[in-house]
Amino acid sequence: MKKIQLSEDQKLAFERLYNWAVNPEGSALTLGGYAGTGKTTLISILRKELRLKNPAMRVAFASYTGKASQVLRSTLEVVGALYPEDSCGTIHSLLYKAQTDKEGKLMYWKRAKTIEAELIVIDEASMVTGEIWNDLLLSEKPVIALGDHGQLPPISGTFNLMEKPDIVLEKIHRQAVDNPIIQIAHEARVTGVVRPGKYAKSVRKFSHEINEPSEINDVIDHLFENFHDDMLVLCGRNKTRVQINNAIRTKMGREGSEPEVGDKVVCLKNNYDHVFAPIYNGMTGYITSIVPHKEHWYEATIDFPEEGRTFDGLILKSQFGAPALVESIDGVKHKEMGDRFDFGYALTVHKAQGSQARTVVLFEERFQKSDDDQWRRWLYTAVTRARENLYIIGQ
User: Is this structure's pTM higher than 0.85?
Assistant: First the structure.
């Protein structure tokens, strides 16, 4: 394999990463880099150099979501930077271990007493919440966290690990310059505008000022009719999300308003105290069984294939199709509300953080209260969810 030539800013970043990994000063080091700046390339080279330095060293790679960890694993394996002694999975699987009964049935999860690694590397760190970060630091293992400081902050709370990274990469790597999605991402981040047009065969922005309504509708119908697991449909407002979910379910022949077996769903509220395992805002899965339970709930089993686990419990009926999080119900105690899920065919950009898909369909929606910086981050985050195909429907 041809040796990768690093740019000057990459060389400086690598030297600091390597020196810190060999002799950590403090509990963590953060690396922020825009899309196309070579963050994962640096981490791959770092892993190889660390193994030359210490062949017995173990590195635990982890990401917030299952899909992100799968992408990271594939990237590391392609360049030969994931070794037998290493691990690569979700932060959840790293921090928590399953507790089973004598028959091997899952009873609950608890924090792991030790982590079998000398170094932890967290990818997509802009997704990490304050609670998860504290749990990582409690492991007393040195942590390198890399993320994109141009993205939106985490969905909830005020914690933002990538607000002021220790190391910053901002120069787009020459191998990424010709990628049309990287070009659009740069345009979105710098100007807050993606111009209508055809950037590649499957990278396009449609505008009602340029394209006929019938053309736009035909494109949307075709994409919805061919919805698949490796597709993200994104928007800005929850009201729009509900409308799109209804449209896609109708295309799939699911005309009823109640969730069914096979429906894709998204978690809308963190629950770190769930008996089976913590569930988090934005986590998507598929219903494998569902029956009504009393007046307000469904008893459901939800499979999360990207996480390698399932959810069993009560989910709130009235949350499905609601444009906002249902916070209370008359006569029901808060702790008895049940977990909040909704249809997950369409997501807000905030909910899609940490995820990527081969195909992204983006409906541009600017909030009246968003300032220019917030809008640029929203648009940039949305665009960088796409790996190959990107269709933007302009306002």
Answer: yes
Q: Report how far apart, in Å, the C-alpha atoms of 34 and of each of 176, 185, 189 are.
A: 11, 9, 9
Q: What is the pLDDT of residues 178-187, one digit of tens each?
A: 899 999 999 9
Mean of all residue pLDDT scores within the chain: 91
248-303 per-position pLDDT tens digit: 999 999 988 999 999 999 999 888 666 556 788 888 999 999 999 999 999 999 99
Buried b (16+ CB within 10 A) or exposed e, 46-82: bbeebbeeeeebebbbbbbbbbbbbbbbebbeeeebb
CB 151 within 8 A of CB 353: yes
159 with 129: CB under 8 angstroms? yes
Longest dimension (CA), the chain: 66
Cα separation, 152 vs 131, whole angstroms: 18
